[in-house]
Amino acid sequence: MKKLKIYLDTNVIGFLDEPTSPREMTETLALWELIRKDEFDVVVSKVALDEIDDNKNQTKVNTLKTFLSEINFETMEVTNEIHHISDLIIKMGLLTSKKHLNDRLHIGCAMTYGADLLISWNYKDLVNQRTIDGVKRVAISEGYGYIDIVTPRKLLKILGVVL
């Protein structure tokens, strides 16, 4: 059976160490166990790695880097193609402000990687029906095929994992 290709948004990695959100942390850790077992092909972009490094809490940065060292993943650089996808997302009227640049780049990285799923806890900007539908339209119209944006919770439910 073909492995699912997943793209990890920065906040999914961040929720590996987020005791203020115990449910999300537990679900993210459960997903991480599957990732550790090499159940998925995983990509993490340079954007996500830079966002982690930019965290002012060095202890958290070190913890997240330790988690990342436990898994196999491909690192994706930002290319002109990814910036083109970012521009298309803006033209659709999605994530239009400068503060959404990294969200658009995450989407572009997931598409160019050929990810089946972009995994995120960012309900406000990414895991909402408007963005999901728009991203699917861009992906299909540009020839990238189907991609969905889901939370770790939804992916675990799809896989039948009970916590």
Overview of this protein structure:
With 163 residues, this protein is of the alpha/beta class. It has one domain: Rossmann fold (3-Layer(aba) Sandwich). The protein is 53% helix and 12% strand. It has helices at 10-14, 22-36, 46-53, 58-69, 80-91, 101-113, 129-141, 152-159; strands at 4-8, 40-45, 74-76, 117-119, 148-150. The protein has a 5-stranded parallel β-sheet. Helix 2 packs across helix 8. The longest helix has 15 residues, at 22-36. It is globular, with a radius of gyration of 15 Å. 34% of the residues are buried. The model has no long low-confidence stretch (mean pLDDT 96).
What key attributes describe this structure?
163 residues, alpha/beta, five-stranded parallel β-sheet, 8 helices, 12% strand, Rossmann fold
Determine the oligomeric state from the structure: single chain
> What is the helical fraction, as a range of percent?
40-55%
CATH superfamily: 5'-nuclease
Question: Which overall shape is indicated by the principal axes computed on the Cα atoms?
Answer: globular
Q: What's the rounded overall pLDDT mean?
A: 96
CATH top level is: Alpha Beta
The number of domains is 1
Q: Separation of termini?
A: 24 Å
| Secondary-structure element pattern, one letter each | EHHEHHEHHEHEH
* Total DSSP helices: 8
Total beta-strand segments: 5
The fraction of residues assigned to DSSP E strands is 5-15%
- In angstroms, what is the radius of gyration? 15 Å
Strands side by side in the biggest sheet: 3-2-1-4-5
Sheet with most strands = 5 strands, parallel
CATH architectural name: 3-Layer(aba) Sandwich
